[in-house]
Amino acid sequence: MKTVMIVDDSRIMRNIVKNTFELLKIPCRYLEAGDGNEAINQLSSHKVDLILLDWNMPNLSGIDFLKKVRAMDAYLNIPIVMVTSEAAKLNVIEAVKAGVTAYLTKPINDKIFMEKISKIAF
Hints:
- The protein is α/β, with parallel strands linked by helices.
- Helix content is about 40%, strand content about 20%.
- A five-stranded parallel sheet has the order 2-1-3-4-5, with helices on both faces.
- The longest helix has 13 residues, at about 10-25.
């Protein structure tokens, strides 16, 4: 079974993402982190197949987490999907330059979520 890490400071949002996977009948195991630092700590001790990442979080933001993780050879090929309310074109460009695999804006649309996730071989 694949492992999905959901990194978002909102527990409600983490639950929404998990529920979306379940509604779409995508079986997986979940790891949760409330900020980028917590997520980096978990990466050191867990194999992760996909990371869903919010932009705005305390301690270490999603974009800073993305840049940090993409700078580590061990995590270059892990798909990272930004799931955020940051919809400005400049944010999307910055995330793409930093190595994001896909970019989704909140609120999550099940159909678009499924389209993006199905394109990612994880």
